[in-house]
Amino acid sequence: MRILFSNKTRVIGLLACVLVTSILILVCEIPLNNSRQNDLLKDKSETALAEPESDPAIIILPGIMGSELEADEDHSTFYGGNIEKGDTVWMPDTVSDALESVKDLDTSFISDITLSDISDLIACFKFISTNEKGESINKILPKAVTKNDKQIGTLGSYTELYNTLYKKYSDSYDVIFFSYDWRMSSRDNAKLLDAFIKDKGFTDVTFVCHSMGGIVAAQYLTLSADSAALTERVITIGTPYGGSPKALMVLQDGRYFNFGVLQNNIRDLALNMPAIYELLPTEYAVLSEGYIENDGIILDNEETKNFIKDLARFEKDEESSGTNKLLYQNALDSQSALISEKGHIISDDRFDVYMIAGFNCVTVTKIVEENNLFLKTDKTYFGDGTVSCESAAFYNGELFDNPVYFVDGVDHRSLVKDSDTLELITSIIDKDGQINKDDYNNKKIVDYEDITLRKD
After folding, report:
1. I need a surface site. Which of 83, 114, 399, 441 has the fewest CB within 10 A?
2. What percent of the chain has pLDDT over 90?
3. Topology of domain 1-456, CATH
4. Handedness of CA 300, 301, 303, 305 (dihedral sign)
């Protein structure tokens, strides 16, 4: 049986998924135990969309929430219906349809929800939630996709990108959308990616990575010398290598849409989700410019760690202090794996890396605290609305030693749909990076020194 929704629960499900989406999209992974990983590896076709095999491949790595998820077991009492193994749980079809019909979802619509609906919303949160070890409470897998799918990725977010690459390159490359469980750690997903590539026998791989997908690719490059040898090029699009301060807003305060009645539930969901922690600003981002100001003092790296672990308070709970220490430490270890004495793996001269970042969209750069409680944010136009340009293109305060392209006025989610950005991506592939400004819209896509930020 497919998931069944009443009219009321259809709206409730829509709102719940929007709120959960808001939590996760703010901050661009639940470890499977060994037996579950082995089961997933037995049929890697469950995680990718691919045409017949050949040596070279273009692999699209979506960002957080970009892959649909499905139930790996039967489940009951979910919005008045039943879930059977194989049913879509991120996002359920009825919710996807509703979202497609809603064009102007805003704070006022969210605030219309009544107190009688809260228990239903909480039930939705619980289905995708994780325990204190970061393990999924319910069995969930990445949803298999096929070449016949009309939409690629959650809500068709990657349809334009996939279709552009498939139409242009499918005669000479396998063009693959690699679907993965975005709740897992990026390192676990990198290991699954490695197994998939080896199983297919690819020898020349081009990664086209959006948001967190670029972190998965970076983790893949650290796994072995084979990973480096099999990689032809990496193209990143709005990847938050330096993290996002908004992750702390969600972890500390469950703050989004000013929807105070559910802040506690949103925070509880975020506290045990490993992906959120991996998207906190990294050590090198803190060293270059701190992102937490508490009682008028900008925190250094050690002060930042201590604040997140032990001090960050939740205004709805006077007894609260700190976050999930295990998951935070795991995230710090995962971030550290990308750094060596030579610097960040993504700037290693063994790899051809091309970076794309959006700007002139209002983006949070700093969290201002008072007495360990969230107070306000500082913002800039030097970002895509979710990921700052410093996070996407800078290391220790300096521009990455890679070709970097800045796209004017295109927000984080739209970067993989924007026609000029897609043209830039194909130019990079066609000319093996040897492109000039006449090969793309150089009025909209500029070098760092040509950036002009809005002043309003």
Report:
1. 114
2. 52
3. Rossmann fold (3.40.50)
4. positive
